[in-house]
Write a structure and sequence with these properties.
Elements (H helix, E strand, L loop, with lengths): L3 E7 L19 E2 L2 E2 H10 L6 E6 L4 H7 L10 E2 L4 H11 L7 E6 L7 H10 L5 E7 L4 E4 L5 E5 L5 E3 L3 E4 H14 L6 H7 L4 E5 L10 H15 L1 H6 L2 E15 L3 E4 L2 E4 L3 E2 L7 H13 L5 H4 L13 H13 L3 E10 L9 H12 L6 E6 L5 H4 L3 E13 L4
Parallel strand pairs: 1-4, 1-6, 4-5, 7-12, 17-18
Antiparallel strand pairs: 2-3, 6-11, 7-10, 7-11, 8-9, 13-16, 13-19, 14-15, 17-19
Protein name: Bifunctional enzyme IspD/IspF
Family: Belongs to the IspD/TarI cytidylyltransferase family. IspD subfamily. In the N-terminal section; belongs to the IspD/TarI cytidylyltransferase family. IspD subfamily.
InterPro entries: IspD, IspD/F, IspD/TarI, ISPD_synthase_CS, MECDP_synthase, MECDP_synthase_CS, MECDP_synthase_sf, Nucleotide-diphossugar_trans
């Protein structure tokens, strides 16, 4: 595979990210020192295996694009896309028709954290396949919901994967598939779906949890916190740093219900945990551990139980907030360790899903997360099956804090 082009689709507005008429579209918002689009384009321009990069923009965005992305010898002039992502990709494919590359990688500008290893995995797999997409495991329980808002079925997630970009294809095959799809009037959510419809076999390679798509305002908060952390990397490489360990503990009692939330995973059970939020003792304990490591209060001081905003809230929100505070101080989460104390439910079958979920929330690798479980040998409230407790420790690395 010697002639490869990349198409970066950047024609959206970012309505779900809180876009207003006087705001720049999300791909031109800055995270750290660069725009989202500039960060998304850079890994493809720096990859020597990619000959050209074609960006597709929205009509009227020429000036803001020029101010966002620096010229590069392998960066082609931008082309105007259509109303749908599908139309924009087709515009990009047609724009490079004269180049007629062997393969093309199609990437969303809203994924600015794509890494070089992921790009190389897709390219490598294209040697033996006509289509390749990166995927990550689906962690949450998936429900099929009826038109009237009722749960119709629970979908088995063992075979489910969440698709990412860049998605790679043999150029002539995917261009022809897009042309057929346009003529048919069908609407597809990604290029792999068009390939499947056109009969192109699509292989999967391992995705990257950090290659997250910036969709909501909360996603941008996390991205900015990540940039703040990276801005302090020099303190670790060229200066001094310190390591801190924080601890946390939480307990919630059982009440009526049919499931519990534990370490970010919904587990069917004959009782629910009772609390102002979703009562996830594992995430609450870990949130306190992170806050303890940076000496910034506890979960109650940041999310008071008396505040109705947090009634029934997903505890992942609290943990993301604590991780963001660590990142804002230039810190890095090195390790997270949770011990769940209960008689039931069994934690073992859900351990890997818990580790993956926590890693995703924190933006770290799953091998930096440990989840363990123990019983209290029938003693105390946990032994009497009246509730669940959890204790956690978190290790963070910070630029040295001088008095």
């Amino acid at each position: 595979m010697t002639d490869i082009s990349a198409i970066i689709v950047a024609g959206g507005l970012g309505v779900r990210a809180g876009w207003r008429a006087d705001d720049p579209p999300k791909q031109y918002r800055r995270i750290g020192s660069d725009t989202v689009l500039a960060r998304a384009v850079a890994p493809f321009l720096s990859n020597p295996r990619i000959a050209t990069v074609q960006v597709v923009i929205r009509a009227g965005h020429g000036e803001v694009y020029a101010a966002s992305v620096a010229p590069h010898e392998r960066l082609l002039p931008p082309v105007i896309g259509g109303h749908r992502r599908q139309d924009s990709v087709r515009a990009g494919l047609e724009a490079i028709a004269g180049l007629n590359p062997d393969a093309v990688l199609i990437h969303d500008a809203a994924r600015p954290f794509v890494g070089p290893d992921l790009i190389d995995r897709v390219i490598d797999a294209l040697v033996d396949h006509d289509g390749v997409i990166p995927v990550v495991a689906v962690i949450d329980t998936i429900k099929r919901v009826s038109a009237d808002g009722l749960v119709a079925a629970t979908v088995a997630r063992a075979e489910l994967r969440a698709a990412q970009t860049p998605q790679g294809f043999r150029y002539r095959a995917i261009r022809a598939a897009h042309s057929r799809a346009a003529a048919s009037g069908l609407d597809f959510t990604d290029d792999a779906a068009i390939a499947e419809w056109a009969g192109i076999a699509v292989a999967c390679v391992a995705g990257d949890p950090s290659n997250r798509k910036l969709t909501t305002a909360e996603d941008f908060d996390l991205a900015e916190a990540l940039m703040a952390r990276q801005a302090h990397v020099g303190a670790f490489e060229h200066g001094t740093c310190e390591y801190r360990t924080g601890s946390g503990f939480d307990v919630h009692r059982f009440g009526p219900g049919d499931h519990v939330m534990l370490c970010g995973v919904r587990i069917a059970h004959d009782h629910a945990l009772i609390g102002h939020s979703d009562a996830d003792v594992g995430l609450h304990a870990l949130t306190d551990a992170l806050l303890g490591a940076i000496a910034d209060g506890d979960i109650g001081s940041h999310f008071p139980p008396s505040d109705p905003r947090w009634r029934g809230a997903e505890s992942a929100l609290f943990l993301r907030h604590a991780a963001g505070l660590v990142a804002a101080r230039g810190g890095e989460i090195i390790h997270a360790d949770i011990t769940v104390i209960c008689e039931t439910p069994k934690i073992g079958p859900h351990r890997d899903a818990m580790r993956a979920r926590i890693a995703d929330i924190l933006g770290i690798a799953a091998n930096r997360v440990a989840v363990k479980a123990t019983t209290s040998e029938g003693l105390g409230f946990a032994g009497r099956r009246e509730g669940i407790a959890a204790q956690a420790t978190a290790t963070v690395r910070l630029p040295e804090q001088r008095p």
